[in-house]
Structure to design on (197 residues):
């Protein structure tokens, strides 16, 4: 009588395969999650920028005397002009403070959690959770509201407003427009893709 050998996977071989698969998964999941978060934040930053730019354009178009707007801080612009052109779900403009439910300040890119910059900001939260804050000379777009990490260049992007030429150099004869600062500039130059973290 002949004994037939049956090809089978032993328990040890199965455990080795499962170990290899789980190791590969453990190594790739953080990178996939980071890529997904970068993509989401970049899209929300672009959306926030477009919404803010449209609201500014509408304010300029309906203004008969834009000298009041031009002499206002970004904070005042949010409170007095832009709010009516935005779909606001939470209005934090009356408080005019950095410790509101809308905006809790931010830290520099990869800065220590204790190094929080809290500018006096007037903020509104939009329907999709994006917060637009105005300070003295800048607009801050926080793509995920007061949620962490509250880090410039990750979920917070800063745009100055004023008279600028095409290259965003201050110019008294330039157009009144938004110009990206720091990581917001990198984001726009990289076609709304986060490449630096």
């Amino acid at each position: 009588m002949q004994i037939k050998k049956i090809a089978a996977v032993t328990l040890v071989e199965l455990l080795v395969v499962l170990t290899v698969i789980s190791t590969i998964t453990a190594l790739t999941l953080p990178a996939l999650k980071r890529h997904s978060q970068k993509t989401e934040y970049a899209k929300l930053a672009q959306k926030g920028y477009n919404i803010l730019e449209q609201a500014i354009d509408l304010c300029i178009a309906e203004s008969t005397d834009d000298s009041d707007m031009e002499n206002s801080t970004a904070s005042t612009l949010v409170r007095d002009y832009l709010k009516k052109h935005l779909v606001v779900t939470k209005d934090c403009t009356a408080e005019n403070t950095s410790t509101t439910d809308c905006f809790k300040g931010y830290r520099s890119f990869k800065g220590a959690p204790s190094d929080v910059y809290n500018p006096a900001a007037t903020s509104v939260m939009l329907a999709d959770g994006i917060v637009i804050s105005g300070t003295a000379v800048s607009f801050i777009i926080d793509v995920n509201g007061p949620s962490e990490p509250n880090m410039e260049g990750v979920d917070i992007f800063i745009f100055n407003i004023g008279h600028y030429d095409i290259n965003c150099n201050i110019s008294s004869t330039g157009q009144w427009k938004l110009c990206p600062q720091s990581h917001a500039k990198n984001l726009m130059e990289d076609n709304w893709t986060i490449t630096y973290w």
